[in-house]
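Dear support,

I submitted the protein below through the web form. The confirmation email said the job was done, but the results page showed an empty box. After a refresh the structure appeared. I'm attaching both so you can tell me whether what I see now is the final result or a partial one.
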Amino acid sequence: MEDLFKPGVDPPRGTAQARCDEKGRLKIPVAFQRFLEAIEEKDVFCTTLDKRTARIYPISVWKRNQKTMHELKANTRAAADVALIANHYGADSQLDGQGRILMPPLLRRELGLENAPVWMEYFRGGFTVYSESLYQEKLVTAQDGLEGKVEILEQGGLL
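What the results page shows now:
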């Protein structure tokens, strides 16, 4: 996915806590704001693909996703279904001068993000936004058998 952005622009690492306020404005963490500035994108598309997490895509990445869904020949039904969900819950937004984006009302209500703390991470060209409860659930699941998972990765070259 490195070819999505300018050479030398690194996406943010780690997770960051943020908050979606009562008006649906999500305050984007500084590292994520800097990333959007570095790739010269203020316009984003906010949606969900799985009805569990929100995804915030720089508009250039979302356009690439739309093209992929449109041109997918192997499973047109899957592409049409995912596009329908993405468009139903999604909307364009723009990073404002205070580092916030407006999350679509239907999306934030469906995912329990309204007036709540959230967790964010960069993944596959955009930002994933987790509700507090889903993030805690995923942490618990990730820890199950963690020692074995680390061993597998170390055998594969993890330092």
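Response: this is the final, complete result; the empty box was a page-load delay. The domain at 14-131 is CATH 3.40.1550.20 (Chemotaxis protein chec).
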